[in-house]
Amino acid sequence: MQIIVADDHDDLSRIAAGHIATAIRDTPTGVVIPATGNTPMGTYRELAALRAAGSLDTSGLRVFQLDEYVGLPEGDDRSLWGWTLHSFVEPLDIPLAQTHRLPGNAPDLDAACHAFDAAIAAAGGVDLAILGIGANGHLGYNEPPADATAPTRPIQLTPASVASGAVYWGSEDRVPRSALTAGMPHLLGARAIVLLVSGAHKRDILDRSLNGPVTPDIPASYLQDSANLTVICDRAAVGG
Ligand code: PGA
Fold first, then answer.
1. CA distance 217 to 233
2. Would you state the pLDDT for residue 240?
């Protein structure tokens, strides 16, 4: 595990983009799982700037969606697929044919999750997982309790995640209560994992995830077993 402490969120974004750009240059047709959430948005903007400047070719990447709410109508503003498209896929000029959604309105959610697992396996597994951490220690929407074997599946959001979602959508009423999440093995088994953590409100959960017992009650704690993990956090998240 490598831990890089940035000065602040802007510095984190620049450092993370440089780190991720190196990974992309090494594996330009790699399979990427990019998180939504507030933390990685600056990083994605920095990556888009590198691409726009001609110093990074992202057009060969293959993208698998990390998580999605269940039951939203197509085009709903809360769609995490929409967020992934606008923040990552489109600015990085990745053809839609190279993307794979988690379909939160599929008629058979379990079958859709099995198909997603099979598609990742067929793609050769995940090269790069760009992740955040939830206040409850979730990775994607692997809500606690979730162990290292938890597959891609439908889940119910915990109250902590409903509260975090209200920050995105204005109120808890607007936060869907269930979601699909990419399974833990895809994330923990990625050939490179970049965990982005910003802000004093993440300090306690980051510490418990990296330094506490490895437990299903904190899904992110399984990252401790990953040799491929780079944590990029800001000073506020480590208490400096
Ligand atoms: P955030 O979300 O980046 O908006 O803090 C992180 C997460 O819930 O995984």
1. 22
2. 63
